[in-house]
Prior knowledge:
28% of the residues lie in helices and 27% in strands. The protein is of the alpha+beta class. It has a domain at 17-67: Allophycocyanin linker chain (domain) (Dna Ligase, domain 1). The chain has a three-stranded antiparallel β-sheet, covered by helices on one side. The longest helix has 10 residues, at 46-55. The chain is elongated and about 35 Å long.
Amino acid sequence: xxxxxxxxxxxxxxxxxxxxxxxxxxxxxxxxxxxxxxxxxxxxxxxxxxxxxxxxxxxxxxxxxxxxxxxxxxxxxxx
Length: 79
């Protein structure tokens, strides 16, 4: 399940770091109340995304900061 998130270009690598939010118990039109899923957003959008999940009745189980791939890893996967 993917969540649509509007992002802003902040021009900062710090704010662009990917963060994964593990969500449980979200009750929405297309999602079962028992579903568990992960949402990955830029750090700059973490607060807004957590508030949106809360408004939809979801429970945040875990938040983890992901390490973005290094430039060499990105080049290797593009080949």
